[in-house]
């Protein structure tokens, strides 16, 4: 429910819907690369003019909207920002309140070792660890769900030591991706997918066989 999200954020980040409004957080799993992105690129290669992943997600979520012709469905993507430069929604907070992935933050560590350093939080999924992404929010403004019960996310990094290790790896060594394997995972990105996301965005078109003109 939108109210779960708004209840733990400052008013400046609130979503402008009644508290009981139904919302879904959309995640992409490791298999998205082969099952969604590559087929999308093969089919739409001449129409890809911005980030291929963003366009692929947009394409699939627009198809979800088509499945509900009698419903108003609002979509907010993870990359969208307001004129104030703030994100339109805080993806990790949304995933946490929806019970999709646990958002580990500095406040989850009792004996904080970082003093004045800025420490960012990170979501960990009980099945995929850090090998997933939060892609968007689907909101159904006309559907109110006052009796929906909130499910807590799975606390899969439960010890103090592991939480400190996770936040250390994410904040100071995020490039090597070790934080993603903080727990034992069922599935991770393929080598091809790792290479793709490790490549600067401007050069990813070449990896997918897209021409400079398409870019």
Automatic annotation (TrEMBL):
Names of required cofactors: FAD; FMN
One Pfam match: MMACHC
Organism (species): Circaetus pectoralis (black-chested snake-eagle)
Lineage of origin: Eukaryota, Metazoa, Chordata, Craniata, Vertebrata
Gene designation per UniProt: Mmachc
InterPro entries noted in UniProt: MMACHC (IPR032037)
Family label: Belongs to the MMACHC family.
Residues annotated as signal peptide: none
The protein's name in its UniProt record: Cyanocobalamin reductase / alkylcobalamin dealkylase
Keywords associated with the record: Cobalamin, Cobalt, Cytoplasm, FAD, Flavoprotein, FMN, NADP, Oxidoreductase
GO BP annotation list: cobalamin metabolic process
PANTHER family in the record: CYANOCOBALAMIN REDUCTASE _ ALKYLCOBALAMIN DEALKYLASE, METHYLMALONIC ACIDURIA AND HOMOCYSTINURIA TYPE C PROTEIN
Keyword Transcription regulation: no
Substrates-to-products reaction catalysed: apo-[alkylcobalamin reductase] + methylcob(III)alamin + glutathione = S-methyl glutathione + cob(I)alamin-[alkylcobalamin reductase] + H(+); 2 cob(II)alamin-[cyanocobalamin reductase] + 2 hydrogen cyanide + NADP(+) = 2 cyanocob(III)alamin + 2 apo-[cyanocobalamin reductase] + NADPH + H(+); apo-[alkylcobalamin reductase] + an R-cob(III)alamin + glutathione = cob(I)alamin-[alkylcobalamin reductase] + an S-substituted glutathione + H(+); apo-[alkylcobalamin reductase] + adenosylcob(III)alamin + glutathione = S-adenosylglutathione + cob(I)alamin-[alkylcobalamin reductase] + H(+)
């Amino acid at each position: 429910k939108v109210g779960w999200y708004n209840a733990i954020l400052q008013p400046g980040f609130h979503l402008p819907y009644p508290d009981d409004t139904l919302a879904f957080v959309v995640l992409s799993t490791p298999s998205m690369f082969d099952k969604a992105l590559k087929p999308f690129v093969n089919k739409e290669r001449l129409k890809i003019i911005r980030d291929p992943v963003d366009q692929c997600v947009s394409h699939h979520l627009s198809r979800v909207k088509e499945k509900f012709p009698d419903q108003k469905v609002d979509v907010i993507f993870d990359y969208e920002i307001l004129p104030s430069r703030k994100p339109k929604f805080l993806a990790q907070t949304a995933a946490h309140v929806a019970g999709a992935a646990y958002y580990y933050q500095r406040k989850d560590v009792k004996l904080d070792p970082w003093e004045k350093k800025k420490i960012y939080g990170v979501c960990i999924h009980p099945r995929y660890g850090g090998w997933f992404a939060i892609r968007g929010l689907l909101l159904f403004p006309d559907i109110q769900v006052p009796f929906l019960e909130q499910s807590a996310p799975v606390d899969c990094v439960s010890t103090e030591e592991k939480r400190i290790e996770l936040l250390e790896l994410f904040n100071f060594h995020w490039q090597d991706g070790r934080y993603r394997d903080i727990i034992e995972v069922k599935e991770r990105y393929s080598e091809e997918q790792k290479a793709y996301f490790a490549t600067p965005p401007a050069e990813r078109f070449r990896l997918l066989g897209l021409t400079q003109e398409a870019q």
